[in-house]
Design goal:
Blueprint (H helix, E strand, L loop, with lengths): L3 H12 L4 H8 L3 H9 L20 H9 L5 H10 L6 H14 L15 E14 L2 E12 L5 E6 L4 H15 L5 E4 L6 E4 L5 E3 L1 H10 L2 E4 L9 H14 L8 H16 L11 H5 L17 E6 L5 E4 L2 E4 L8 E6 L4 E5 L5 E6 L7 E2 L12 H6 L25 H11 L1
Parallel strand pairs: 1-4, 4-7, 10-14
Antiparallel strand pairs: 1-2, 2-3, 5-6, 8-11, 9-10, 11-12, 12-13
């Protein structure tokens, strides 16, 4: 059976106008198989078998942290995790460390310039903490830099998860009014599931689906080769040194308004130190792939919860009501970029929708969800709150953006692969 990477390659060759016969010859696949891939979805509907658990799995996070600190002695790492209860053999630790040791070999580098419209580089920067929705959150800056023009896009978020990883890229496409042929980034968990010893990348299926939808090729840097995406690394430093010092802002929305103004009045209208030209003037000549009239990719955050006997679903430390007929059932929750929470049955039927509550430990209840349910006096007091319509939180995307419609079962499959 073809994996996701092979299917993406076949679809990409077809987009370049290469015939079915020629694709079959290059890939060694039957022409019927090639046609089925071209005309079918990127991600097969059949659920993938979960990878068998390894003894070393509970210690992977610790090992990665120690490797980031420069510890590459496999025997030392083995001794450290044995103390923590690791029951496996030292050879498994050596096998885990080996790819990192090879990646640390010193290599000469040269400046790599891309042709117009060819590449964008993407990175996240951490900018401390911010008070958001009633609590302290980590503050991230998403930065995309076009390789040829050096035009930049910056957006601050309180999350770097899959939803915001995709949303920020969509916002950047709209800001640039087009898309590059490829996007280069680190080995983020939202993009790269794993790498084989020979360097082959296993991509996150939802990110590959996103790339296929917009028609660009994802590219992941080699481990410990951050200089490969030096243009965006410089962009993050530029944000820290030029935009961030002395900045005063009230909230996340105000911060993003200010950074957009900075992009339009400073970053993209200056004479760039390398190209000696103005990025916004070169952007016109980038020849990016145009955004078509199709809807934006659906970047909703998907999760699954079981409703309580009180007809409530817990989500992000708050509680939301569902009709009493759906009490004690497993339901699918879909949080949109516009700040709404949709609740579905596993069959895809919508049962409730709410605006997300600000803060924590709040109950958002629609009284009609309890109509017809026999209640005691105590229960009436518990569910007596009523939902009042509120404004959706600020977002850089247009109000109520038109997004693609996908089968709900597709999200469950992506979640299983990403776990």
């Amino acid at each position: 059976m073809l994996n996701v990477e092979e299917r993406f390659m076949i679809k990409d060759l077809a987009k370049q106008g290469i015939s079915v016969s020629e694709i079959a010859r290059r890939t060694g696949r039957d022409r019927k198989t090639v046609r089925n891939v071209i005309n079918g979805p990127l991600v097969p509907t059949k659920k993938k078998r979960k990878r068998q658990a390894r003894k070393i799995d509970p210690y992977v996070v610790y090992l990665e942290e120690r490797i980031e600190q420069g510890v590459l002695n496999a025997q030392k790492l083995y001794q450290e995790i044995v103390v923590q209860g690791y029951p496996g053999q030292a050879r498994a630790v050596r096998a885990f460390v080996q790819p990192y040791r090879e990646a640390r070999r010193v290599q000469a580098t040269v400046r790599f310039e891309t042709e117009p419209g060819r590449q964008a580089q993407v990175d996240w920067g951490h900018f401390g903490l911010i008070e958001h929705a009633g609590r302290q959150r980590r503050l991230y800056a998403f930065v995309m830099t076009l390789g040829w023009s050096r035009a930049m896009y910056v957006e601050f978020t309180v999350s770097a998860d899959m939803a915001w990883w995709l949303r920020c890229q969509v916002h950047a496409f709209h800001y640039f009014n087009g898309m590059p042929m490829e996007i280069l980034h680190d080995n983020l968990k939202t993009a790269v599931l794993s790498r084989t010893r020979d360097g082959r990348v296993h991509w996150h299926p939802r990110y590959l689906d996103f790339a296929s939808y917009y028609g660009f090729r994802p590219q992941a840097c080699q481990p410990y080769r951050a200089q490969t995406k030096g243009k965006v690394e410089s962009g993050v430093k530029y944000v820290r040194r030029n935009f961030w010092p002395g900045l005063v802002y009230s909230d996340l929305a105000d911060l993003n308004r200010q950074v957009l103004h900075w992009l339009d009045s400073v970053a993209n209208v200056r004479i760039h130190g390398t190209t000696r030209e103005v990025p916004i003037e070169r952007l016109v000549k980038e020849d990016l792939q145009p955004l078509t009239s199709k809807a934006d990719y659906d970047t909703s955050r998907i999760s699954y919860r079981r409703s309580s006997k009180d007809c409530l679903v817990s989500y992000e430390s708050n509680f939301y009501s569902v009709p009493f007929a759906y009490a004690r059932q497993r339901l699918m929750l879909k949080e949109t970029e516009a700040g709404q929470l949709f609740i579905f049955t596993l069959e895809g039927n919508e049962v409730a929708r709410h605006y997300l509550a600000l803060g924590r430990h709040q109950r958002v209840v629609v009284a009609s969800h309890y109509d017809g349910l026999p209640m005691t006096t105590d229960r009436r007091r518990q569910v007596g709150a009523r939902q009042r319509p509120t404004q959706a939180p600020f977002t850089l995307a247009p109000d109520a953006p038109r997004v693609e419609v996908r089968p709900l079962g597709q999200y469950e499959q992506w979640l299983e692969v990403g776990e």
